[in-house]
Amino acid sequence: VSGAYTADANTLLLLHMEDTAFTDSSTATNKGDPTINGSVTRSSTQAKFGTYSALVGSSTSNADSLEFADHADWDAGSISYTVDYWLYLIALPPSDQTYPVCRFSGSGDWGNYVDTNGAMRHGISAVSEIYTSNSVVPIGSWHHWAIVKNGASDTKIYKDGVEVATGSGNFSDCSSPLWIGGQNTSVTSTSSLNGYIDEVRISNIARWTSGFTPNSDSTTTSATGTLISDTQTAPSATTKMSGVILYKDNAGTATLGTDLVISLSANGGTNWTEAASYGTVTPLFSTGIKMVRLGETTVTSGTTPVIKAVWA
After folding, report:
1. What digits encode the pLDDT tens for the residues 248-270?
2. Which of 18, 96, 132, 178 could form a disulfide with 136 if both were Cys (CB 3.0 to 4.6 A apart)?
3. How far is CA 310 from its chain centroid?
């Protein structure tokens, strides 16, 4: 079970960072692949979801960023809007203008950035800006950040679902690309993050207007459930049953008798007896499909044989 986002009708951009091209996964307004500036790399060293995240700022000589061309979807001057992502800083930035997500055209621009004191800021620098207290952006761990504008100007910053700043920080309309992980290549490397970013999403609604629980970490959950076959009719009472099962492992390898238990009944399921033995898997029935013979099993007498599979 993965906590990674699924695109919906309000998703304008969605980056899972799982492919080398950093392809947009939004379905309604897919933006394709960004221009990769500097040395942004897909890294498996850290990943919030899946296997990879985007590593930016690893080179001190580049201004790293993922650049998406100017688009009307980046204009949010008078509508509700949300920018959210997971961020893992390697170190605090050398510049107050280190941008996870930004859009610039000189005037009428917007961005959110981490300053040298570890504060998260959003808006038009020194003009219309909201910001957290210092030392709010941690080093060396994943945290969820959301900048949410509800209506024309009510804007909040959330860290891990907790509101940490509020005000009228702008998402002004402008004509420029959108940059992820840093500013455009015309500036120095100090405007790039030194860290990892994952699950970047931009939405044309206010995703949250109060505290919330961010999408959870990826987990692995064992399959559970019971399958009972159709009941058959035997010509006479029987006390011995056997059979053959076909199954396929989705992940890992199931241990028969533990992860997958097969039981038999000759009286329509009134009495169940686990199979006396599970045969070896040779050969495969077909690609990936395993075939196993069940050993002869003594069961309660009956004329309505049925089989049961239980995933533990």
Report:
1. 887 778 899 998 999 999 999 99
2. 132
3. 30
